[in-house]
Each structure stands twice: as structure tokens, then as C-alpha cells.
Design a protein that fits this description.
It contains 8 helices and 7 strands; from the N terminus they run ααβαβαββαβαβαβα. With 255 residues, it is α/β, with parallel strands linked by helices. Strands 4-3-2-1-5-6-7 form a 7-stranded parallel sheet, with helices on both faces. The longest helix has 22 residues. The radius of gyration is 18 Å and the shape is globular.
Length: 255
């Protein structure tokens, strides 16, 4: 196992939040700050090296708390398979729930899928359907990786973390920091109140433009989501290709 990738047995069990708590505690001795800056830089470089050859990716967000019997888990599993058949690499946070379901859908048709883990003292554990994963101490580094290598973003129902990921991605698109990549919300009953809030409050109060909510596709259909993503992806220069059976994902320099 490459040192670049986490050990599955210990993955997600380290109290990784401690490092970020210390980082956000305020000014500290300059030598400590320098060492931490070097560590953050090294974490970025590990991510860049690990994920450079895996694309094109679609990132799937969603709650870790849905069991495999839940309709959202079933839908995410279907979506993962459809995305993989369309030639995309499915990338998630690598944990349970929706993340597991999307990885599982890709895994079941023999396609690779990726997990970007955030070290947490609770809840985040590896799912058995990721082919490769990488551990991150810092949420902001992990989110950069999930955005940098993806051509579309799909959010299933989730909590604070999912909301954070959705709105950060929307902000990046709105401000032109990334291209107008497809953003899909899966689960109309769950997300409809949010969309009503965007239209009925934010647009009305002129805190966002009337066209901003239109950046989001709201659907219950995995097929509709994938068709939307494929159509938009072609405008970014991607060509549709068939997905080969799973093969080892080699890092640069490996043989």
C-alpha cells in the first residue's frame, strides 16, 4: 500500500479534528505557524499527486447516515452506476450512507471510484467500495480536491456538511472561480423548501440574482441527472467514452 493512501483498517479512526482545532485557535508562535503551513502545503501536494490521473470525475455529496434500505441510498447507488457507465469516475467522501451508495454503484459495474476522507473522531468510516482513497486533516484541503477534479456535482439529502459543500460550490460558480459546471440536487421533497427559500427570499431581497437558482437541477431521476451532466460536460470539451472494466489506478512513477 502506497504511503500516499490511508490504511483501510485505521482509516477514519484518528482524532483528526485536533489538528484543525489547533490551527483555528488563533495566533500561535511563528515557528508553529510555519510548520503548520508546510504541513498544509504537503497535504495539498499529496492530494494533487494522488488525484491527477483519476478523472474526469463527478463528485457526489450526501449524508453518511442513510442505511442501504433507504430510498436515497438506492437512488445514489443507481446514480453511481449510471455515471460510471457514462465514462466518469465517481468521487465521494468515501464514508458510509450516500457516499457508500454512489461508490457501490460504480464498483458493481467494474468501474473505479474514489474516496476523499476527512479524519473525524466520529461517524466517518471507510466503505468497502472505494478503489482508492486519501486521508485529509483539513476540511478546506479536502473540499479543494473534491472541486478541482470534478466536472459536475450531485448532492443528495444531507446535513450541515452537505449544505456547506453545495453552497461553497455555488459560490465558486457564481463568482466565476470555476466554470458553470452542472449542480444537481437529488430528492425533490427534501430540497424543495431550500429552492423555495432561494426563489422566495434571496431573489426577492436581491441578495442573489434571479438566474442563480437556475444553476441547479432538482430531480428524483438518476437518468435525468446523468443526461444533464453528460450534455453539459460536452460543452467543456469532454467526449463521451465507454467505461473499461476496473483496472489498477497507478500513481505517477508507479509500475
Amino acid at each position: 500500500m502506497s504511503l500516499l493512501w490511508g490504511n483501510r483498517e485505521s482509516w477514519g479512526k484518528a482524532p483528526g479534528a485536533l489538528e484543525e482545532i489547533q490551527f483555528l485557535r488563533g495566533p500561535q508562535p511563528r515557528t508553529v505557524e510555519l510548520w503548520r503551513a508546510i504541513r498544509i502545503f504537503a497535504e495539498f501536494m499529496r492530494g494533487f499527486r494522488a488525484l491527477h490521473f483519476i478523472g474526469p470525475c463527478i463528485t457526489v455529496f450526501g449524508s453518511a447516515r442513510f442505511p442501504e434500505t433507504h430510498p436515497y441510498y438506492v437512488l445514489a447507488r443507481q446514480l453511481g452506476g449510471r455515471l460510471a457507465r457514462a465514462g466518469f469516475t465517481v468521487m465521494t467522501g468515501g464514508g458510509p450512507g450516500i457516499m457508500e451508495a454512489a461508490n457501490r454503484g460504480a464498483h458493481e459495474i467494474g468501474a473505479p471510484s474514489i474516496g476523499c476522507n476527512i479524519q473525524l473522531p466520529h461517524e466517518q468510516k471507510p466503505n468497502p467500495y472505494v478503489d482508492r482513497w486519501i486521508d485529509f486533516h483539513y476540511f478546506f484541503v479536502r473540499k479543494v480536491m473534491l472541486v478541482k477534479y470534478s466536472y459536475a456535482f450531485v448532492a443528495f439529502p444531507g446535513g450541515f456538511g452537505t449544505l456547506d459543500e453545495i453552497f461553497e460550490t455555488l459560490t465558486l460558480v457564481q463568482t466565476g472561480k470555476i466554470k458553470d459546471f452542472p449542480i444537481v440536487l437529488m430528492g425533490t421533497d427534501y430540497w424543495r423548501p431550500l429552492m423555495d427559500f432561494l426563489h422566495g427570499t434571496l431573489v426577492r431581497e436581491h441578495t442573489i440574482d434571479p438566474g442563480d437558482p437556475a444553476r441547479v437541477l432538482l430531480t428524483d431521476s438518476a437518468e435525468e441527472a446523468v443526461v444533464h451532466i453528460v450534455d453539459r460536460a460536452q460543452s467543456f470539451g469532454l467526449e463521451r467514452r465507454s467505461r473499461p472494466r476496473r483496472q489498477p489506478l497507478l500513481l505517477e512513477g508507479e509500475a
